[in-house]
Design goal:
2 domains; alpha/beta; 16 strands
Length: 351
């Protein structure tokens, strides 16, 4: 009599998977700053040891433009993905954003392409959420004033993410080299009903704004120090996400000298102009970096110790965080698979 029990010694081959395409609107429909912060807080300690992320490839495609490649892959059965982010950086764009990116996700089990998603939007969310997650450990719980230096595409994300983790913030001061842009962003955010509990203002006095900030967050392409360490008040937290090359810097040596410095990962010590320059000038040593984000979340390294110390967090971007962010978007998108997210044509092949 024939058995109905399947032959486990010869399992069926894995079924082909049609990749999904996730647009920028799709990313926005699947993730919030709150949900991504929560996801990263739980998955970074769980999977960081299982994710291999070589230092990014950075190529100068012109004197002012760059191509970045950020690969990563997981060895954990619970995170069966391989991913790569491709990023172009054209800071001289005027009518278009300066950064464009695509993330491609593959199955680590079969190598099949699973998804291609707009990583420009993904990067905005993940960068802001990483900064806010670090702020959860490094800024004062009673922080009331947030200073946003820069008013580009990342600025509103950084503001929203910090408002998610620091509920006592009541004033946001925005500074930009072009005051009209700072004022336009302040006016735009002031008009949003969900943000009515916050007072938004623009300020052309950078030093004055920094002196009043409990949390100062920077997202610029500056090659000269904007934040002066002497202007940081006791208890301030400085967060910087703009620089990713040795020639870029958003703060001076005094800021990193006064602060306890943390990074998002090892690449920051090798790429960020604020740190590379400080190492070269003997202001600090690599060993003086207190710890990274995973160590903060795991509790292996202590974050803020008292209300008076100054803390600094430098982020240059992490392929591990990209993979975990893409995982969240893909797994939610696979369930939704509607609206701005659509199943690709069976003949589509994601490059």
């Amino acid at each position: 009599m024939a058995s109905n029990i399947p032959d486990q010694s010869n399992p069926p081959p894995p079924a082909a998977v049609s990749p999904i395409l996730i647009s920028s609107a799709g990313v926005r429909s699947l993730v919030t700053h709150k949900s991504l912060i929560s996801h990263l807080k739980s998955t970074l300690p769980q999977f960081s040891a299982a994710v291999q992320s070589p230092l990014r490839h950075a190529h100068q495609t012109s004197p002012s433009s760059s191509l970045l490649l950020m690969p990563s892959w997981s060895t954990s059965p619970s995170l069966p993905y391989i991913g790569t982010k491709l990023v172009t950086h054209h800071p001289n764009n005027t009518t278009l954003p300066g950064v464009h990116a695509v993330y491609v996700l593959f199955s680590a089990l079969t190598g099949q392409p699973l998804a291609a998603m707009d990583a420009t939007e993904l990067t905005l969310y993940r960068t802001a959420c990483i900064s806010a997650l670090a702020s959860l450990y490094l800024s004062r719980e009673d922080s009331e004033t947030l200073v946003m230096i820069g008013s580009g595409a990342l600025a509103p994300h950084l503001i929203r993410a910090h408002l998610t983790v620091r509920s006592k913030i009541r004033k946001v001061v925005i500074w930009n080299r072009t005051m009209e842009k700072a004022k336009a962003l302040a006016d735009h955010l002031s008009g949003e009903e969900e943000l009515k509990f916050v007072r938004f203002e623009s300020n052309g006095d950078l030093e004055g704004a920094v002196r009043g900030g409990d949390i100062i967050t920077c997202a610029t392409n500056s090659q000269v120090a904007l934040v002066k360490g002497e202007d940081l008040k006791k208890g301030a937290h400085l967060n910087m996400v703009g620089s990713f090359r040795a020639g870029m810097r958003e703060c001076d040596d005094e800021a990193v000298r006064r602060g306890r410095v943390y990074v998002d990962g090892e690449a920051a010590a090798a790429e960020a102009g604020e740190l590379v320059g400080a190492f070269e000038r003997g202001v600090m040593r690599k060993e003086d970096v207190v710890g990274d984000l995973v160590e903060l979340v795991e509790g292996e390294k202590i974050g803020r110790r008292n209300v008076e110390e100054i803390t600094v967090f430098k982020s240059v971007g992490s392929a591990t965080v990209d993979l975990l962010s893409a995982q969240m978007v893909y797994e939610r998108g696979g369930r939704a698979c509607k609206g701005a997210i659509s199943r690709s044509n069976p003949s589509l092949r994601v490059p």
